[in-house]
Design goal:
about 325 residues; alpha/beta; two-stranded antiparallel sheet; 10 helices; 11 strands
Length: about 325
Amino acid sequence: MVSKQDNISEIVYRPEAAGKLAVAYVQDLHDHINDGIKLGLPDLDKILIPLRPGWLVTVIGYTSNLKSTFMDWIGLQALDTIKPESNEIVVKVSWEQSIEEDTLAWIASKSKLSITRLARGLIDEPEWDVLKGTATTRAATPLWVMGHSQMEFKTGRRARPRMTMRDVARGLEYIIHDSTPDLILSPKMIILDYLQRMRSDPQDGDSRREQMMESVNLCKDMAVAYGCPVILGVQAGRDAADRMPTLEDAQETSNIEQSSDVSFGCWYPIKSAKEGTMIEGSSLSGKFPVNKNLFFLRLLKQKLGQSSETFPIYVDPERRLFANMSKSVGQYR
């Protein structure tokens, strides 16, 4: 006999209860039909169910194939849905980019400044005015960042924090409950960049593979616990350096395939193919010449909808801009 203390009844549902919950779920989706987050890419948004609370969204790509840039784009779409005077925020956690690098990327996406020039310190007087004005806008934008600062390391000899997912959870609790007097904040989206850089806790398993699988579980748990989409960057293996990555290319863990509600593959061909080379194939939409503005995005998985579609995307890496690609002229629209 099951003891009352076991609370096992909390995970058991009668058939009639399951039916009622399913109807209530659809009603909730209907009542909040405009609350999901679209990606601002009309061709993709036609088949993509808007990102919803509790979803784990994985973005898979080989190094330098704009995985992080695309994740930042998703974050911008979430920020655009937040109303003024709202308590909603977007939180980005980076194990790789510094706070300064991340913020410069945001400034470049909102202005016409070149991220390359900013990163090199090449800036003239008019650009300084744009930089300072956009930084003021950044100060009023509800985008919180967790990670390390190059400037504080330089002046205070502070080492880069090696965060575990439990550290991230503690940081989120601080942001939500303690960072703003008399106001409890609510995450609209959490961005984690990226899986392979996360530090594991000893209790996560003995092998690296077990630890990575548990990290993915914790990311999914975070999406459910905070009631928002969690966007997780995942490094693809070297075999995907010159092609579109698949779910099987996610390094060190098969749990990505099982736990993801939505998964994207990122491929930036100019990193592995000669400029001008024509890219085509049964899995690609059309035929396009390789250049710095050509990016391919594949919807690898969508639990409740259509998937396995590949989209040619116009990208401006300098400005962190993504847009639909026009097949006729190879430009965005």
